[in-house]
Specification:
CATH superfamily of the largest domain: Ribonuclease H-like superfamily/Ribonuclease H
Distance between the termini: 62 Å
CATH architecture of the largest domain: 2-Layer Sandwich
Strand content: 15-25%
CATH topology of the largest domain: Nucleotidyltransferase, domain 5
Strand order of the largest sheet: 3-2-1-4-5
Order of helices and strands: EEHEHHEEHHHHH
Largest sheet: 5 strands, mixed
Number of strands: 5
CATH class of the largest domain: Alpha Beta
Number of domains: 2
Length: about 190
């Protein structure tokens, strides 16, 4: 059994990084699987339900903001991927990862660049990771509406950067990421004067 793994949320300034692992099996019957970034939000949500219903096994996992800041984004992403695979109800024979890097796992792994566009299992993982992370960012928006997480999902848009300057840095912001780190430095410098 082949398992596909992908992540969502490496680039944002806020929130966790999310990974999903999916074992589809040869007769999954899910049409329209593609890189989640190329699908509309509505279509992603529809496909996520199909994947959860028809996949042999699926799992979603996260690495927290604290883990991102302590480890770095690559290592935190690999940790989320590892957690997703370990969380599967069935053990895969091989794990195919989207991108260049593989997490440490007890079974064979292979990194495939642009795998989310070419391997159905990775496309399915891409869709689950993106929909799960988007849902999480909507929850964070309800707690911290001033940052506009419902629109940009934590990515460094001009609205988000302005909100950061206006409202300061929240507990869900990644302090190791450039724009947040610079704002922290500016705040510290202002406090010295």
């Amino acid at each position: 059994m082949i398992c596909g793994v992908d992540e969502a949320g490496r680039g944002p300034l806020a929130g966790p990084v999310t990974a999903a692992a999916v074992i589809l099996g040869p007769c999954h019957g899910i049409d329209g699987l593609a890189d989640s970034k190329k699908l509309s939000e509505r279509h992603r949500v529809f496909l996520a339900k199909q994947i959860k219903q028809h996949a042999i096994a699926w799992s979603v996992a996260h690495a927290s903001v604290a883990e991102i800041d302590n480890l770095n984004i690559l290592q935190a992403t690999l940790l989320a991927m590892q957690r997703a695979v370990v969380g599967l109800a069935s053990t895969p024979d091989e794990v195919l990862i989207d991108g260049l890097h593989c997490p440490m796992l007890p079974m064979p792994t292979r990194a495939i660049v642009r795998g989310d566009s070419t391997v159905a299992e990775i496309s399915a993982a891409s869709i689950l990771a993106k929909t799960a992370r988007d849902a999480l960012m909507l929850e964070l928006h309800s707690l911290l509406p001033q940052y506009g997480f419902d629109h940009h999902k934590g990515y460094p848009t001009s609205f988000h950067l302005n909100a950061l300057r206006l409202h300061g840095i929240s507990a869900v912001h990644r302090r190791s990421f450039g724009p947040v780190r610079l704002l922290l430095q500016d705040t510290a410098a202002d406090e010295k004067h």
